[in-house]
Amino acid sequence: MTVDPTVLADGVNLLWVALACFLIFFMHAGFAMLESGQVRAKNVANQLTKNLLTWSVGIVAYFFVGFGIEAIAGGLTGGGSYSAGDLTAVMTAADGAWINEWLFGAVFAMTAATIVSGAVAGRARLRAYVGYTLLLAAIIYPVVVGFTWAGGFLDALGFHDFAGGMIVHGMGGIAGLTAAYVIGPRLDRYAEDGSTNVVPGHSMTFAVLGTLILAFGWYGFNVGTTATVFAVEGGELVLDGYAVVGRVALATTVGMAMGAIGASIAALYLTGKVDTLYVANGLLAGLVAVTGIADVVTWWGAMLVALLAGLQLPFVFEFVTDRMKIDDVCAVFPVHGSAGALGVLALPFVHVGGFSTSLLVSQVVGVAVIAGWTVGATAAVFGAFRAVGQARVSPAHEREGLDVSEHGVDTYPEFGKPDLAADGGRAVRARSTDATEVRTDGGTATDESSDDGIKLVMAIVRPAKLADVKHALAEAGAPSLTVTRVSGRGSQPAKTGQWRGEEYTVDLHEKVKIECVVADAPVDDVVTAIHEAASTGEPGDGKVFVLPVDGAVQIRTGEEGPTAV
């Protein structure tokens, strides 16, 4: 049986591109976790919704408009052919073209779009962000692709960007910075004296896990861009773009490693500590830096460029936030913008073919053109939204949180609610004496007493001691309790925390409030049980209060007094 090498090459190439597209799509899970981890708990659902709508709105806009705009922009600026029919060409494309041309382009476009959401988190109105996403996918990003990959004037000039270090990531980072500048910082981000207030995100775990998911998907982004595995020459199969897959895989792998190392060094220099979020951001910055050059960079060049990308990140972030007063919530500019530009600008110095002045000129011009177009277009769109009062939510809604004000949901409904805490403590059977049934308040079922015997024992203790207190109360014969998460301060000294290299004071400490109602039970025994179980001997152990209760009524039976308790 003979196999047509052309059929085999087309089938393998198509499968390769499809798998790469699926990996790149999975990066949106990483973006969602990375960004939601860096925002306040009250804004998590808003950030997740933006990530979902980025794909949903953007992919439709790219299908109907963006894909055609790429061809028209390329033909207009590069001297090639173009026509109005390019706008509808995707609708009649061959089956394979819907994968290796349209879908391949779409997943890159959506990556550029979703970067912006991290910069404007916590205050951008949903309709403004979705409106911008629609225009980015339909016009702003496709024009950049037209200038470059679609055969435009930058391509003719010799501008090189292998997988979108500047075209996708640099463009997205610059767009995010511009948008954050136009709509302004979050409330209370900057004090009246101009100093910067730290607003920590709610989950370092989400941020780091999102980073690792992105790093995994990046293999599709970079290695997958070697889009053709085979070609047919003289009737025989030969490696095509896949010939450089090893170099691309190497650059991608060492890029993430050196970026994390560079950010660690810079964070240690600036703060005296290796900041976890800087390490995660540096890993991504290293990946961004090598994305545009991975196919033609030397091994040592990939390491050097990624290291520089990690080193610059803390300094650029501090410059943007502290000097320029631009509230870039998720550090999208130092991670994507400056790192992407650094990578493509460094290419002439680390190219496998040696230094080239003409390549340096084309890279500088390319970065300038892409940055200029992105800043102008993004500022125009968000400026228009701001002019009609639609760029950001109201101060009241921002303080309340965008989850409730924009979506009507509470991502963590149990926070701050008087629900029973699930602390993981083991269940303990209440102590019984004289084989008589013990009530939950410590008295016996046959006790009859007046209201004067009802007491409320209220304790404020460390969260880590909750399981011990529960066990001690059960042993004391008073296992019923209500637990509430609270925060406050007393004699426990304030301490400092750090979020992306910036220190902040923690003077409200997390505690749990335990309330236990007892009747005809030895109150002193209950107090002693709590005291002994909650004590560490250090400031901040908490306090126990005993309060009289005038009366009690059981809702189900209507019983009153100690029997109701």
Summary keywords:
single chain; 565 residues; alpha+beta; 4-stranded antiparallel β-sheet; two-stranded antiparallel sheet; 8 strands
Question: Any overview of this molecule?
Answer:
The chain has a four-stranded antiparallel sheet with strand order 4-7-3-8, with helices on one face. It has a two-stranded antiparallel ribbon with strand order 1-2. It has a two-stranded antiparallel ribbon with strand order 5-6. Residues 416-451 have low confidence and may be disordered. Helix content is 55%, strand content 9%. The chain has helices at 5-37, 44-78, 97-119, 126-147, 153-157, 165-183, 204-222, 245-271, 276-291, 299-323, 332-350, 357-387, 395-400, 402-407, 466-475, 523-534, and strands spanning 230-233, 236-239, 454-461, 482-488, 495-499, 502-506, 509-519, 542-548.
SSE topology sketch:
Layout (H helix, E strand, L loop, with lengths): L4 H33 L6 H35 L18 H23 L6 H22 L5 H5 L7 H19 L20 H19 L7 E4 L2 E4 L5 H27 L4 H16 L7 H25 L8 H19 L6 H31 L7 H6 L1 H6 L46 E8 L4 H10 L6 E7 L6 E5 L2 E5 L2 E11 L3 H12 L7 E7 L17
Helix pairs in contact: 1-2, 1-3, 1-7, 2-3, 2-4, 3-4, 3-6, 4-12, 6-9, 6-11, 6-12, 7-8, 7-9, 8-9, 8-10, 9-10, 9-11, 10-11, 11-12, 15-16
